[in-house]
Amino acid sequence: MRRADREVTDINEILRIMKDCDDVVLAFNDESSPYILAVNFGVSEAQGEITLFIHGAREGKKYDYLKDGAAVSFQMSANHKLIMDKERGYCTMNYESIIGRGEVYEINDYDEKEAALEVLVQKYHIPSEKFVYARAAIPRTRVFKICVKELTCKAKA
User: What H or E segment, with its residue span, contains residue 17?
Assistant: First the structure.
């Protein structure tokens, strides 16, 4: 990272930034060109290991790339704010950004799927009680975890 003074290494701060991000952009290798995909996501951390969770319908182009063990790169950013200094004729942008790599795995176990979906729901909505899914919805939903292998986090405030 060129600007080491902007690097964020504290795991709690990285998780806070991830929770502030609206979506994650995934990047996959294709035979002819890169393939990117923006999706909503959930995030969990256990013993310093970060896992992202994504979901979708049963079919779609993204499943050509979401194969067990497949390499994936990702990017997310949040808290953008344009700062303008009209007197000096200068402007800059504040931001928080994460770029990383990981491996993707499909979750097929019903209970694991439900737990992963709960992580997703918790990111976007903090209910007063646990959301109860229709039993038929879980098998119709494909759920994946991305085991984060490396990431860099940068912030300018």
Answer: helix 11-20
Task: Give the pTM.
Answer: 0.90
CA dihedral of 130, 44, 123, 14, whole degrees rounded to 10: 150
Among the listed residues 140, 155, 126, 156, the one whose alpha carbon sits nearest the alpha carbon of residue 58: 140
28-60 per-position pLDDT tens digit:
987 888 999 999 999 999 998 999 999 998 888
With beta carbons less than 8 A apart as the criterion, state whether 8 and 153 touch: yes
| Closest by CA position to 79, among listed 93, 67, 69 | 93
Query: What are the beta bridge partners of residue 103?
Result: 71, 147
Q: Does an H or E element contain 12, and which?
A: helix 11-20
